[in-house]
Amino acid sequence: MGESSAVGVLDRRRARDGRDVAGASAPRGDRLPPPPRERRPLLAALAVLLIVGGAAVAGLLALRLDERVQVVVAAHDIANGSQLTADDFTTTAVASEGTLLIPAGQLDQVVGQYARVPIAAGQLLDTTMLSASGALQPGLVAVGAGLAAGRMPASGLQPGDVVELVRVGDGTGTVLVPDAYVSSSSTGSEDQLGSGGTVVTFIVDESEGAEVAAVAADGSLAAVLVSRGDARG
Length: 233
What we know:
This protein is an alpha+beta fold. Among the domains are: 68-131, Antifreeze-like/N-acetylneuraminic acid synthase C-terminal domain (Type Iii Antifreeze Protein Isoform Hplc 12, Alpha-Beta Complex), CATH 3.90.1210.10; 140-227. Helices cover 30% and strands 28% of the residues. The chain contains five helices and nine strands, in the order H-H-E-E-H-E-E-E-E-E-H-E-H-E. The protein has helices spanning 3-25, 41-66, 107-110, 190-193, 206-217; strands at residues 68-74, 89-95, 114-115, 130-131, 140-147, 162-169, 172-187, 198-205, 221-227. Strand 6 and strand 7 (172-187) form a beta hairpin. The termini are far apart.
């Protein structure tokens, strides 16, 4: 091969190598753009859990509200031993699951029963607070008596109290009934008993009733408090 031929081959090779380098450095028009970054799967899963959890909580709250029912509640303070009337109660909505609370629909069954314990205004009524019978049982009688000031405790008497009934006079005292039960108590008129007098109904044995009534009638009956608010029946 001649010198001129060798030079031509080298020139063509350099030209070809130059085209290859230029082609490699030039951007290719058919290259795809880089794919977008994928969201983190953990964050996506957490978002789904929050949405589902929020819906579940809202549904549970709505269900709990639907489970609220109307129950019987005391409209005012009710003394122990009192016979109950419709005016003693109102109703309120509560969630009463597995309780002894009395539904409002059974209010007519409550009327006529007796309070076994003192019931405060606003207190929810349950079946353990009621008695089908009052203090006046067979063999017992109710005796009314007017007690003047000084013939009973200064704090007064209230339904449910247990007292000792005493005949007083001539500086002596005779116990008539050691455990009479106070069924009711109210302030008497000044004409009846003078200032501070109280009219009380006592539950005593039938055999003691006549004597207590006689002593009360002549104004010589006194009551000594034995226990406060003791339930009977």
